[in-house]
């Protein structure tokens, strides 16, 4: 029995739930705080679980789930703020916020609260929320195309605001840097005129965001920007007032030199303007990056079938078919799978018989049949593995080459019953080779005999041979490279072979060599294929460590075993059978064109189905980590040195202070250096 247990936040919660269940006499207990599930062998009262401070619920028909498209999340403080606000509503069970996707997933009691109230609550927080998907996963907000267009509009808006802000802030910054002995007050007034629209027109969104944040007792990035720029702006106005007649300053009664000394170097209009300009530039870059990420993720999530054909039985015994959304399938539906269609959901075969391409599931290259659904079991295994994983850097790599390198190169002879093998006709130039099981002209029936005579009449040479099919393998000695056995003794000369083989990708050997030689990564191969075929493929790819005939759950155990030996393991795969190992590894890398479950389980998804991207992902990750360290250095160097000097740390000893214009320049340079350092990754090749 499995319960959904909501409210577990750490390992201590899982231990407390397990202890409560164990006190009821339950021995076989499994608690996973990652998937919010508790499993046990018997059926205890869930009230004991709830008494420990958690919520336990089995399949509650009143619990619904909805996804809200939420625009306006700008920083990491937004998700916890949204979670706290929504969880205060009666009936809300759980809230999950996806910052990159601009989406909020809510689990709620449909009898108490609904999607419209949830969206209204988010709008009160200052976010633009709309219902994206209902409980069946159906997009009710106008499909992803509308969201892409909205992202494009957001990018354009930030780009336009940033351009205008820089156009207005640049003159203010230049005036601040120039030494103007005469007319400093007029220059300051000009800076005021340029800085005001930047502060209150282009920066209005920061004031709105700060108000909404403070309204609910939180502080986000908008609060920081609004407070910092407002302090610089209004202090500069105060300086102008003090240096004018109204403030009792020099104004027009003093000399031009006194006027310059009063104003010059004391206003900070450039600080507020340049800061808002750079923040808007950062928002533009962030929106553009998030838009690209969202499109890639949505493309991966669209791999599963969209529609399904449901067969209904009428009262008169007749049947009719209905095409429905695959997300709306429920338990008990009878789904008709037509030739060439993908299976939209797990289930059991109730009528008919067919073979399916299970290469993604089992790693085998030949179509096969199955009586029991396996994908759901693999999902459960992947979820269990995800609950016990840790974080380390990858140095040890396992590649599921049965699916990645053409899903195996095992040549498959046509299978049939030995006693009734089919007739094979092989056209080789002008010569026809006719093979029949049993051999000899007398073994041919009238129809086959007539065909042979017709071929001879056309000038073809007809040769009758024995064909070994089924359990026996008909392969010559020089085909040992494909891991097949030679023909049995006494079978005669081999004159030909008919087989089907997947081809190893051209880049496979090159990628393996690069990983091992240049990146220092040890490559293993896990495959569900037989030992001889696996070894043959491994030799061609340059892999010396091979584990063959491995089932999906065994792949995860092998990965865990390597990790227990102290290795840091990265698993690369693209099939459903790879998902448990992807979840168990320190780092899971999925090929974008692979199975949906593999994509969802992996930590890194390669959009292109090219093996070179495996090495590219590692190299880009290393380059990115180097940029992160450089960014930290640049940001800390300017601030770490500038702040103590600005506070007067050197003044008692050297009488050195940090002028405002130098401080503003240091602030700008720190931001520019970080942005430039990050943009340098675009030149990576």
Automatic annotation (TrEMBL):
It comes from Aureococcus anophagefferens. Its main location: membrane. GO terms for biological process: copper ion homeostasis. This is HMA domain-containing protein. GO terms for molecular function: ATP binding; ATP hydrolysis activity; copper ion binding; P-type divalent copper transporter activity. It holds the Pfam family Hydrolase. One of its GO terms (cellular component) is membrane. Residues 64-130 form the HMA domain.
């Amino acid at each position: 029995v499995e319960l959904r247990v909501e409210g577990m936040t750490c390992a201590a919660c899982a231990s407390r739930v397990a202890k409560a269940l164990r006190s009821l006499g339950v021995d076989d207990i499994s608690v996973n705080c990652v998937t919010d599930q508790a499993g046990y062998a018997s059926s205890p009262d869930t009230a004991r679980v709830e008494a420990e401070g958690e919520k336990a619920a089995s399949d509650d028909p009143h619990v619904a789930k909805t996804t809200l498209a939420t625009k306006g999340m700008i920083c990491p403080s937004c998700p916890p703020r949204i979670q706290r606000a929504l969880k205060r509503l009666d009936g809300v069970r759980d809230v999950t916020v996806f910052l990159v996707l601009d989406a909020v997933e809510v689990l709620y009691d449909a009898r108490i609260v609904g999607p419209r109230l949830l969206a209204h609550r988010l709008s009160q927080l200052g976010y633009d929320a709309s219902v994206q998907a209902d409980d069946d996963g159906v997009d009710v907000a106008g499909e992803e195309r509308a969201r892409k267009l909205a992202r494009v509009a957001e990018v354009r808006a930030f780009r336009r605001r940033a351009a205008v802000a820089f156009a207005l802030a640049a003159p203010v910054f230049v005036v601040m840097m120039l030494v103007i002995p005469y007319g400093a007050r007029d220059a300051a007034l000009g800076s005021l005129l340029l800085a005001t629209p930047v502060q209150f027109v282009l920066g209005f969104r920061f004031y709105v965001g700060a108000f909404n944040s403070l309204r609910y007792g939180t502080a986000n990035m908008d609060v920081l920007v609004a407070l910092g720029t407002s302090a610089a702006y209004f202090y500069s106005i105060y300086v102008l007032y003090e240096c004018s007649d109204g403030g009792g300053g020099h104004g027009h009664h003093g000399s031009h030199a006194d006027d310059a000394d009063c104003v010059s170097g004391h206003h900070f209009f450039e600080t507020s303007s340049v800061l808002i300009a750079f923040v808007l530039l950062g928002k533009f870059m962030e929106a553009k990056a998030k838009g690209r990420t969202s499109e890639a993720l949505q493309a991966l999530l669209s791999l599963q079938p969209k529609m399904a054909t449901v067969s209904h039985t009428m009262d008169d015994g007749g049947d009719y078919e209905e095409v429905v959304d695959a997300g709306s399938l429920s338990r008990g539906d009878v789904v008709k799978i037509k030739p060439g269609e993908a299976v939209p959901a797990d289930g059991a075969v109730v009528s008919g018989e067919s073979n399916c391409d299970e290469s993604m599931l089992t790693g085998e290259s030949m179509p096969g049949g199955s009586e029991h659904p396996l994908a759901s079991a693999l999902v459960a295994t992947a979820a269990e593995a995800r609950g016990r994983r840790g974080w380390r850097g990858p140095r040890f790599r396992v590649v599921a080459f049965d699916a990645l390198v053409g899903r195996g190169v095992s040549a498959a002879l046509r299978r049939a019953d030995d006693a009734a093998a089919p007739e094979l006709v092989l056209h080789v130039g002008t010569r026809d080779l006719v093979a029949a099981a049993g051999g000899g002209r007398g073994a041919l029936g009238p129809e086959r005999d007539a065909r042979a005579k017709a071929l001879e009449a056309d000038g073809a040479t007809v040769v009758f041979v024995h064909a070994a099919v089924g359990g026996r393998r008909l392969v010559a000695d020089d085909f040992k490279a494909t891991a097949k056995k030679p023909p049995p003794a006494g079978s005669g000369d081999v004159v030909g072979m008919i087989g089907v083989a997947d081809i190893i990708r051209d880049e496979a050997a090159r990628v393996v060599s690069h990983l091992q030689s240049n990146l220092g990564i040890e490559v293993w191969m896990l495959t569900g294929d037989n030992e001889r075929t696996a070894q043959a493929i491994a030799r061609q790819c340059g892999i010396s460590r091979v584990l063959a005939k491995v089932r999906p759950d065994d792949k995860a155990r092998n990965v865990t075993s390597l990790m227990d030996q102290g290795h840091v393991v990265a698993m690369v795969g693209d099939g459903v059978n790879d998902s448990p190992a992807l979840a168990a590894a320190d780092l899971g890398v999925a090929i974008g064109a692979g199975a949906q479950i593999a994509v969802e389980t992996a930590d890194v998804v390669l959009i292109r189905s090219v093996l070179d991207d495996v090495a590219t992902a590692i190299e880009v990750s290393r380059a990115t980590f180097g940029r992160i360290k450089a960014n930290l250095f640049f940001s800390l160097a300017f601030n770490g040195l500038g702040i103590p000097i600005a506070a007067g740390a050197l003044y008692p000893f050297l009488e050195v202070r940090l002028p405002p214009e130098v401080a503003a320049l240091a602030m700008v340079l720190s931001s520019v250096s970080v942005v430039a350092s990050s943009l340098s990754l675009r030149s990576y090749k």
